[in-house]
């Protein structure tokens, strides 16, 4: 199952804040027809209210919102940051990659999150991410 396409990837993004980074990933979901703008706002709102829980693994933030916040279809987007930034998670900062996703229902949510978790199990993933230069290379890391 392919979960990430080059059209939903941006490399070397200069983010000033974690909100900029999440917003950039969310805009890719919108651009690719997977979510409405309200979903991007929902991702920021959820991370603000619940804290930096979205940095679930060292170097990677996985923002998302509730389907009713504006998810249209299953979608995954990735933003590789030019300079890693802190999200406020002492254990897993700094973040190199923002991997946003949206799903229209709970079943799809579990399926996509399982596929992402499978990818994140690779010990060398952060090193591989840091070595990538193109959208195609980032997408390939998540489509094994």
Q: Which keywords apply here?
A:
alpha/beta; Mannitol-specific EII, Chain A
> How many whole angstroms does the radius of gyration measure?
13 Å
* CATH topology category name: Mannitol-specific EII, Chain A
CA-based shape: globular
Major beta-sheet overview:
4 strands, mixed
Give the CATH architecture: 3-Layer(aba) Sandwich
Question: Tell me, what is the CATH class?
Answer: Alpha Beta
Within the largest sheet, what's the order of strands? 1-3-4-2
Task: Determine the structural class based on helices, strands and strand pairing.
Answer: alpha/beta
* Number of DSSP E strands: 4
Sequence stretches where pLDDT stays below 50 over 5 or more residues: none
Strand content: 15-25%
Distance linking N and C termini: 8 Å
Mean pLDDT: 92
- What's the CATH superfamily, by name? Mannitol-specific EII, Chain A
Number of helices: 5
Outline the fold blueprint.
Layout: E1 9-13, H1 18-31, H2 37-50, E2 60-61, E3 75-85, E4 95-102, H3 106-120, H4 125-131, H5 135-141
Parallel strand pairs: 1-3, 2-4
Antiparallel strand pairs: 3-4
Helix pairs in contact: 1-2
Sum this structure up briefly.
The chain is α/β, with parallel strands linked by helices.
């Amino acid at each position: 199952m392919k979960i990430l396409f080059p059209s939903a990837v941006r490399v070397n993004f200069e983010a000033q804040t974690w909100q900029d980074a999440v917003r950039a990933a969310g805009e890719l979901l919108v651009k690719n027809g997977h979510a409405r703008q309200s979903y991007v706002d929902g991702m920021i709102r959820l991370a603000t209210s619940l804290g930096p829980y979205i940095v679930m693994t060292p170097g990677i933030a996985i923002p998302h919102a509730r389907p009713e916040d504006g998810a249209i279809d299953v979608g995954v987007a990735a933003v590789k940051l030019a300079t890693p930034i802190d999200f406020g998670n002492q254990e897993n900062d700094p973040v190199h990659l923002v991997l946003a996703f949206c799903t229209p229902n709970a079943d799809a949510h579990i399926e996509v999150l399982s596929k992402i978790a499978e990818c994140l199990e690779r010990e060398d993933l952060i090193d591989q991410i840091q070595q990538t230069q193109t959208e195609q290379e980032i997408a390939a890391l998540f489509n094994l």
